[in-house]
């Protein structure tokens, strides 16, 4: 049964994500337009791929002439970590139907998962689905709206306010760091440290992209295993 109160609470919880997504999705719209994506293609990418940094990678690969199948496989590889998000919330969503789980799974981006992981456990079980829907709807609609705005008017705005360009590129890492610090505790610290060390080791050896994938897979896996044995 629809719960407007739970949905509204979820929307409120999405506000920090919205604050970070607006400049990043706007930047993606600008990047897509610069790569000769029309507005429909840019918005379609945000609506159906909805993968944050992977969308930037996809646009860059296609702009450089990489075959679309290769670009799609690389994008998929960058998003393999998302398979770990569902199991990470499985204890808190046991009462969800299969249909509800499938709907909720689509909206589990990095930032949405971070907020859900830290807060859904304190919500009443009967309110959790609609709270999660509010959280995901706020983030999803912002990502769509920002992409649309960036594709239509981004170049014009940045030509007048060029100082905004570096801020746009740092908005997503800044948002994720703020969410990460807010959820650090004894059960997540080891996973975070392992992820950081892995990413740093690969980066120092010139394999930054592989490091991101390795950290995204191994770090959360360690966190999930650790929680099971607590």
What can you tell me about this protein's structure?
The protein is mainly α. The chain folds into two domains: 4-183, no CATH class; 184-230. Helices cover 76% and strands 0% of the residues. The chain is built from twelve helices and no strands. It has helices at 4-13, 15-34, 39-48, 53-63, 68-78, 85-88, 98-106, 110-119, 128-160, 164-183, 189-204, 208-228. Helix 1 packs parallel to helix 9 (128-160), helix 2 (15-34) packs across helix 3 (39-48) and helix 8 packs parallel to helix 10. The longest helix is centred in the middle third of the chain and has 33 residues, at 128-160. The two termini are 34 Å apart.
Record keyword descriptors for this entry:
single chain; 230 residues; mainly alpha
Structural class: mainly alpha
- Helix content percent band: over 70%
Number of extended strands: 0
Query: What's the shape?
Result: globular
* Count of discrete structural domains: 2
Chain-averaged pLDDT: 82
The profile of the biggest β sheet is:
none
Strand content: under 5%
CA distance, first residue to last residue: 34 Å
Reconstruct the topology from this structure.
Layout: H1 4-13, H2 15-34, H3 39-48, H4 53-63, H5 68-78, H6 85-88, H7 98-106, H8 110-119, H9 128-160, H10 164-183, H11 189-204, H12 208-228
Short overview:
The protein is mainly α. Helices cover 76% and strands 0% of the residues.
